[in-house]
Amino acid sequence: MRQSSRAIEAIKPTESMIPIYHDEPKDWKDLQVRVAKIFSDMGYNTEIEKNITLVRGKSKVDVFATRKFLNITETHIAECKHWATAVPKV
């Protein structure tokens, strides 16, 4: 399957969307806690700032969420970014 060369645009909130939280996170740590809580509420076991081993070495991820369903382990990794200003391109 070929990917489109068009960039994916950010989802813009609409009136029909129900907010998960009614306020902005205080900082990136608060965002990590909120993301972990959302996964936890959906039945996942979560860890914040977990060290994991990947093919190319070790890495620390912001939120690590797993759950087992029908003998299949589902894993999600979330990198949480909460910048007050635009991130500069290098």
Provide structural commentary.
With 90 residues, this protein is of the alpha+beta class. It has a domain of 51 residues: Trna Endonuclease, Chain: A, domain 1. The chain is built from one helix and three strands, in the order αβββ. Strands 1-2-3 form a three-stranded antiparallel sheet, with helices on one face. The radius of gyration is 16 Å and the shape is globular. The protein starts with 27 loop residues before the first helix and ends in a 12-residue tail after the last strand.
Largest sheet: 3 strands, antiparallel
Strand proportion, as a percent range, falls in 25-35%
Order of strands across the main sheet = 1-2-3
Kindly state the mean pLDDT as a whole number? 82
User: Radius of gyration, Cα only, in angstroms?
Assistant: 16 Å
Q: Tell me the structural class.
A: alpha+beta
CATH architecture of the domain at 28-78: 3-Layer(aba) Sandwich
Write the H/E string, N to C: HEEE
- Tell me the CATH topology of the domain at 28-78: Trna Endonuclease, Chain: A, domain 1
The total strand number stands at 3
| Oligomeric form | single chain
Shape: globular
Number of helices: 1
Q: State the end-to-end CA separation.
A: 30 Å
